[in-house]
Amino acid sequence: MTERETTRELFQHATSTVRTWPLDPPDRKPAFALEQISPVPVPSRDGLIEGLAGDLWETRDQLRAGSRTVGDVVASAVERIDRYGSTYGAFEYVADVGEDTRLLAAEAGAGAWRGPLHGIPISVKDVIDVRGMPTRGSSVALPPRIAREDPTAVARLWAAGAVIVGKAATHEFALGVTTPRQREPVVDGDQVERRLVAHKPTQGCRHA
To answer: How far is CA 166 from the centre of its chain?
Structure first.
């Protein structure tokens, strides 16, 4: 039996298991009761939404003001990926963004901003294609497939000036439940580790 045939057989077995798995009856009561919590009203405020220090909005403002450069911002993101990537398993693929960074830096220096994400490092979930990058759905069941074109969402990121630094890890095929080989940073870690929690890709695209 070839590797492809073995993979197909395993996939068929997995889908058969999902389709035939017995579901709980709709009237099943929960195993425990949670305390009822009264909703807390959130006051309405005018003006811009305030984010976290170093977030996408602040980074964008720093780039436009000239207090940071595209090269500095991208290098900082790449350094964090290199330092923590293997520990937290946050990326399936890290791209070589040197050429993109130089081009966007030159455009920024000339005041030719492509859009609101110009020079901002962004990661894309590994269930979404990025032209020229492999897609494998964070699974070892199938070989990686090099994407030939960008979907609309990714094309809009490029058009807005984003620097796509790589493909972020996800639950296998984004099916949910638990993916053991991914580790979440501890909550009481240092500032960079807490920031990784906030920036860890969870819904498609994230600021690196």
So the answer is: 9
